[in-house]
Specification:
- The chain is about 30% helix and about 25% strand.
- By secondary structure, it is of the alpha/beta class.
- It folds into two domains: about 150 residues, ornithine cyclodeaminase, domain 1 (2-Layer Sandwich); about 180 residues, Rossmann fold, CATH 3.40.50.
- The strands form two sheets. An eight-stranded parallel β-sheet has the order 10-9-8-11-12-15-13-14.
- The chain is globular and about 65 Å long.
- The model has no long low-confidence stretch (mean pLDDT about 95).
- Bound molecules: 1,4-dihydronicotinamide adenine dinucleotide (NAI) and 3,4-dihydro-2H-pyrrolium-5-carboxylate (2PC).
């Protein structure tokens, strides 16, 4: 067999191609793809098993996340040269391989807890097209998944969307991507930060202050807090992005009408929020197959997938506490991998 070349896209290339509107657009399609049961409906569709884990003793794990995603448009209609025409449809075949080693951040030099790469294949020949460094992409797509979930599950019940307060519990990699993505795509009057090590939230505050002039509200107030309770007080939207195996957010911290994107806690999900929240809230998930495998011990009311909400197959509550319990899905990686590869090739073909 003749040898075959593929491109390797590193983080510095990917940063230049970042556009939150396009990312949110492909993530919404990833959600729809898992909930769409009718492949002839013109909607995106997909195939993905629950991910597999290989444990490396107590030290860490290797996760394998393969997916096929059909009938997606990688560009939103409004970002095309002919906005009136339908967005061109494509597919994506990909596999993200990701390692999670909890002691990495405390090594010298420090390493990320999570290290990933996306392998993107030609969906008609199966040939490897590209490998993409996936730490940056995982940050983007996980934040975009929370943004889309918030838009679908929570924002429809908010009459005045100009006075929103965002709280970030855990200002590591994911906390940072979430703060940036939300500020770039929605207007917040205040962004509140809490981290176990306060210096880390002070560092994020400095970064977000620099970002503010290019966000949806240049006058946003960014504040650092001493406790999760102080941080959650008065928040409309909360993101929990920690590796805590014990609850850090309790019902008494919350407004009556609030949405939480609970994205953290690695191999064990749903440990960041207290049971008194789960007793009362409505939970939305990314995919049932993953939830059956990874949320088997969750005691709460799971209403449905975010994609079912987009497809209007599930109704969202008009008040109360909603939680998006984010596991992370392979189709999200297939979607963002294809988007960035397409954008890279487009630029290359234009001679940039
Ligand atoms: N749902 C999804 O799609 C994804 C979820 N994750 C999860 O998100 C979480 C955060 O990931 P990264 O930001 O990449 O990691 P990171 O290492 O950059 O940040 C971890 C954060 O957790 C905090 N933390 C750790 N133990 C804690 C404890 N016991 N109490 C309070 N805070 C604690 C740290 O202070 C830090 O802010 C992890 O649990 C990871 O597995 C990561 C990627 C995708
Ligand atoms: O979806 C993902 O990439 C991950 N979810 C939890 C750890 C990594």
């Amino acid at each position: 067999m003749a040898s075959h070349r593929f491109v390797h896209l590193v983080e510095s290339e990917l940063i230049k191609l970042t556009n939150w509107k396009e990312i949110n657009h492909v993530l919404e399609q990833a959600f729809v793809s898992v909930s769409n049961k009718d492949k002839s409906s013109g909607q995106p569709y997909s195939s993905q098993p629950a991910r597999s884990f290989v444990h490396v003793g107590d030290a860490g794990a290797l996760l394998c996340m393969p997916a096929f995603l059909g009938n997606i448009s990688v560009k939103s209609d409004s970002s095309q040269s002919n906005p009136a025409g339908p967005a061109a449809r494509t597919s994506s075949l990909a596999c993200k391989l990701i390692t999670s080693f909890k002691d990495n951040p405390s090594r010298n030099p420090s390493l990320p807890d999570i290290i990933g790469n996306i392998f993107l294949f030609d969906e008609t020949t199966g040939q490897l097209q590209a490998t993409l460094e996936a730490n940056y992409l995982t940050g983007l797509r996980t934040a975009a998944a929370s943004i889309v979930a918030t838009e679908q599950v929570f924002l429809p019940r908010i009459a005045d969307k100009s006075k929103l307060v965002l709280g970030i519990i855990g200002t590591g990699v994911q906390g940072e991507f979430h703060a940036m993505g939300f500020m770039k795509t929605h207007k917040f009057v205040q962004v509140k930060l809490w981290n176990r090590t306060k210096a880390r939230s002070e560092q994020l505050k400095t970064k977000l202050t620099q970002l503010a002039p290019n966000s949806c509200n240049p006058d946003v107030n960014i504040s650092v807090h001493d406790s999760p309770e102080e941080c959650c007080t008065n928040c409309d939207i909360i993101v929990t992005a920690t590796s805590s195996s014990v609850p850090i957010v309790f019902k008494r911290f919350l407004k009556q009408n609030v949405h939480i994107n609970a994205i953290g806690s690695g191999l064990q999900h749903h440990t960041e929020l207290a049971q008194d929240i789960y007793d009362e809230c409505s939970v939305f998930i990314d995919y049932w197959n993953g939830a059956k495998a990874e949320l088997a011990t969750l005691k709460s009311t799971i209403v449905g997938e975010v994609g079912e909400v987009v497809l209007k197959q599930k109704v969202v509550p008009s008040s109360g506490i909603t939680v998006f319990q984010s596991l992370g899905m392979a189709v999200e990686d297939a979607a963002i991998g294809k988007l960035f590869y397409s954008k890279y090739m487009e630029q290359l073909n234009k001679g940039h």
